[in-house]
TrEMBL record, chains A, B:
PANTHER family: HTH-TYPE TRANSCRIPTIONAL REGULATOR TRER, MANNOSYL-D-GLYCERATE TRANSPORT/METABOLISM SYSTEM REPRESSOR MNGR-RELATED. This is Trehalose operon repressor. The gene is gntR_3. It comes from the Bacteria. Residues 2-70 form the HTH gntR-type domain. Keywords: DNA-binding, Transcription, Transcription regulation. The lineage of its organism: Bacteria, Bacillati, Bacillota, Bacilli, Lactobacillales. It comes from Lactobacillus corticis. It holds the Pfam family GntR. GO terms for molecular function: DNA binding; DNA-binding transcription factor activity. One of its GO terms (biological process) is negative regulation of DNA-templated transcription.
Length: 233, 233
DNA sequence: CAGTGGTCTAGACCACGCC
DNA sequence: GCGTGGTCTAGACCACTGG
């Protein structure tokens, strides 16, 4: 069951993507959208709220909802998108090699105060883009959430597997970007001495931690983009 | 005039910060909050929405609103916070040196398609943390928005000046993090060959672009942290 | 001034988690 | 079953922008 607010948001998104509404344009007013979709105004507003969250529009009092520039973002808006999705949206010629897939307890160094090591599936993957090794991903998927991972899925998009096949509701993540000397095995794979490192902790909708990732990137190819709204309270 | 939803959000935020509600705890139910604050439920929900946006709570259907871990973030949640605010929240011993403050057109390389060079105030500042030069900030503040910047304010927090004194409504930004060879003058100031670079475009609530920043960081000290929610539509 | 978005209300029904 | 959050409604008044 899709909610009305989601349907409206999707429809507007499609119209923005198709160029029916272009950057700088104003969307129809909220009252007008109300008539267009046959819903109450609060429902329309919730739909628009989704687009605001996506960084697609900006609401201006007394003027309207302004469509923002899309093409600024080569990379995903706030990086919770998976590697496969990235390729699709960027049209890169990419390949994934699974180097390791085994049972291994999650590392201590990832853990904060109350978290301790837990049984997990460890996956090391090499991402090859346009024929060049660019990224090494090391994932720990907690067994308490996903007991088993088929090898075939690891070569594909893990997120697709988790969400579509297992019905997991991946909800939020914390990320930390740093620049470090490459560990030996990474240095060998990527042929560089230093790497950009992205460490993530990914959580489900019910607040369960389920994935710990360390992602090593060739620094000369690395880009991390972010869309941020100023939080005032 | 503070809206009810903002007051409620602030109050809950204070209670979370003070430890009255701790990570893992559930906030009172929405109906209960309704009675507590004497408002309708939708208003309570809007307040909670703000806390969700901040990454402070996670709502779980059938269970309640769970308070999330705060202390994961040494750096601000989604980096639209200014340097001075950072210090305050992290208790660092920091100092700012204004190296340059002059009129200078905004650079071309920052511009996308329809944007061209515009008159701006250029500010170069050196950030010294615990006695060590760590960051070089280069800002272009568009004159169309802020015609003049007092030298004294540049040494302070520009954001405080813009928001409190000028009443500007800073709303959102796009950021791009990369690792690069340091430009000569930066290499000299920070005494390193490579730097972490954060480029930002900052916009006002009415969608006017007003600030372009390039921020060079010592790579060994650099950390960029992000809280991201998975965007499903 | 008319039109825009921002806030708020007092209901209602539904979907889900937990006991 | 009960309590939770998710969705939705049909009004209302306010604050701001624009011409």
């Amino acid at each position: 069951m899709e909610s009305k607010q989601r349907l409206i948001a999707k429809d507007l998104l499609a119209k923005i993507k198709s160029g029916q509404y272009r950057p700088g344009d104003l969307l129809p007013g909220e009252v007008q959208l109300t008539e267009l979709y046959g819903t109450s105004r609060e429902t329309v507003r919730k739909a628009l709220r989704h687009l605001v969250d996506l960084g697609l529009i900006q609401k201006v009092r007394g003027r309207g909802s302004v469509v923002l520039n899309l093409d600024r973002y080569k990379f995903p808006i706030s990086g919770l998108t998976s590697f496969k999705e990235l390729n699709a949206s960027q049209g890169l010629n990419a390949e994934t090699k699974v180097l390791v897939l085994e049972e291994r307890p999650s590392p201590e160094y990832f853990m904060t105060a109350e978290l301790t090591s837990e049984p997990a599936t460890f996956i090391r993957r090499l991402r090859i883009i346009n024929g060049e090794p660019d990224v090494v991903d090391e994932d720990f998927i907690l067994k308490s959430v996903v007991p088993e991972i088929p090898l075939g899925e690891a070569a594909n998009s893990l997120y697709r597997y988790f969400e579509d096949d297992l019905g997991l509701d991946i909800s939020y993540a914390t990320k930390l970007v740093t620049f470090e000397k490459a560990p030996q095995h990474v240095a060998k794979l990527l042929q560089v001495a230093s790497v950009a490192v992205v460490r993530s902790m990914v959580y489900l909708q019910d607040t369960r931690l389920f994935q710990l990732t360390t992602s090593y990137h060739r620094p000369d190819k690395f880009e991390f983009s972010d869309f941020a709204r100023r939080q005032k309270l």
